[in-house]
Amino acid sequence: MLKEVSFQLAKTGFMDQDFEEFDEFDDIPNIEEYPTLRSVVRFNKLLPSVNWFRSVGLPLGSGTIDTAQAYVETLGFPGTFIAPIESWEEASFAAANPDWNSSWWEAEEQMRVSLTTDALEIISEEDLTMALTHVSATASPTIQHAVENFAEEQGIEDEELVRAAIGSAVQTCHQAALVLAAGQEDAHPFALKYKLFELGRWPIAITGSSFNIF
């Protein structure tokens, strides 16, 4: 269950005893003075334990559907249809679809800006930037390795699609880290979106009135 609750563990500090040292964050000398950054450290250490994309193509379970519905509702898109994507071919079409809901993208961007503002009330800009850089440095190779191995196993040769999957997951790690840095709750849309990745899914985009999930 660790890989399915890593965001909550990072938020609550349940595993503090395992993360007493912050060696990879040693460029933030006063990190222990920032409770929310300690959550980011825990989150960063748990990223490699997530089984990225392990459930793509499988029927959506009730946990995935409930999380997806909570995401669209808290983001401000109630009534959005949860649309399962069943194959890499469908995922490729959904990821490249030019009809992405621009209001969805704008809502996420506004939330990112708001979280950054909230985090900077707690943490210096330099320290926040360093912490988020560490998250990206951990997430990028971890996710790339997972996706490329999976693509090889499945015979996926669409490099653009592989890059889109990697980029989407890395971006969501960045967003989730911002939630933690700002001291926000597990019910934040970005935390819910990250949970979908923890569940092995790829939440691709809201297109029209449908939320496409692989």
Count of domain modules? 1
Q: What gap, in angstroms, lies between the N and C termini? A: 21 Å
Structural class: mainly alpha
Instruction: Profile the largest sheet.
Output: 3 strands, mixed
The radius of gyration is 17 Å
- The ordered H/E elements are HHHEHHHHHEE
How does this structure look, described?
- The protein has eight helices and three strands; from the N terminus they run H-H-H-E-H-H-H-H-H-E-E.
- The chain is mainly α and 214 residues long.
- It has one domain (2-213).
- A three-stranded mixed beta sheet has the order 1-3-2, with helices on both faces.
- A hairpin with a 2-residue loop joins strand 2 and strand 3 (210-213).
- Helix 1 (6-12) runs antiparallel to helix 2 (35-46).
- The longest helix has 30 residues, at 125-154.
- The protein is globular and about 45 Å long.
- The two termini are 21 Å apart.
- Residues 1-5 and 14-19 have low confidence and may be disordered.
Task: Give a quick set of tags describing it.
6% strand; 8 helices; mainly alpha; globular; 214 residues; 58% helix
How does the SSE layout of this entry go?
Blueprint: H1 6-12, H2 35-46, H3 62-75, E1 81-84, H4 88-96, H5 102-120, H6 125-154, H7 159-181, H8 189-198, E2 203-207, E3 210-213
Parallel strand pairs: 1-3
Antiparallel strand pairs: 2-3
Helix pairs in contact: 1-2, 2-6, 2-7, 3-8, 5-7, 6-7, 7-8
